[in-house]
């Protein structure tokens, strides 16, 4: 799969929401403009700086410009992540995690919750909201990509391998 096809796939609001990939060498390449759809924003995280849940919340909140009222807990993370496309002004958001074997390595019990929230946000953002209200929005693509070091099971299923 070439990069443009990969970018186009990640810009679509459709499952799977989570992938694993060999990102160690490709992480910087993915951030270079190689014909990436303009609505696609890729935010890269070094999981080595996110070994605890507190570190994780701090880093993500900072990089995604979460509001000051972010409560540093799973419900607040879910809510802010689902709304991040608004203040980031993106039509597609990809969270790219390198050094994934370190992600929540000191709080491993929280990893399944992270996966669950990411899938929930992907499903929620994929649904267009058109009720004639100020919060109406088109569907937004959301994906999280982890390098191959991550524990690859989610609810008994392998995270799909994303070909580069």
TrEMBL record:
InterPro entries: Barstar, Barstar-like_sf
Domain of life: Bacteria
Domain Barstar (barnase inhibitor): 43-128
Gene3D superfamilies per record: Barstar-like
Family label: Belongs to the barstar family.
Protein name: Barstar (barnase inhibitor) domain-containing protein
Protein's organism: Nonomuraea longicatena
């Amino acid at each position: 799969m070439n990069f443009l096809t990969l970018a186009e796939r990640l810009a679509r609001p459709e499952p799977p929401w989570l992938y694993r990939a060999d990102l160690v060498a490709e992480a910087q390449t993915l951030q270079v403009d190689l014909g990436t759809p303009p609505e696609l924003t890729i935010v890269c995280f070094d999981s080595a700086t996110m070994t605890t849940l507190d570190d994780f919340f701090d880093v993500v909140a900072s990089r995604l410009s979460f509001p000051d009222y972010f409560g540093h807990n799973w419900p607040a993370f879910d809510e802010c992540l689902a709304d991040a496309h608004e203040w980031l002004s993106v039509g597609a958001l990809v969270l790219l995690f390198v050094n994934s074997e370190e992600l929540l390595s000191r709080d491993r019990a929280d990893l399944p919750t992270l996966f669950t929230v990411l899938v929930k946000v992907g499903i929620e953002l994929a649904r267009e909201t058109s009720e004639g209200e100020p919060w109406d929005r088109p569907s937004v693509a959301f994906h999280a990509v982890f390098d191959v070091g991550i524990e690859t099971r989610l609810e008994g299923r392998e995270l799909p391998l994303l070909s580069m």
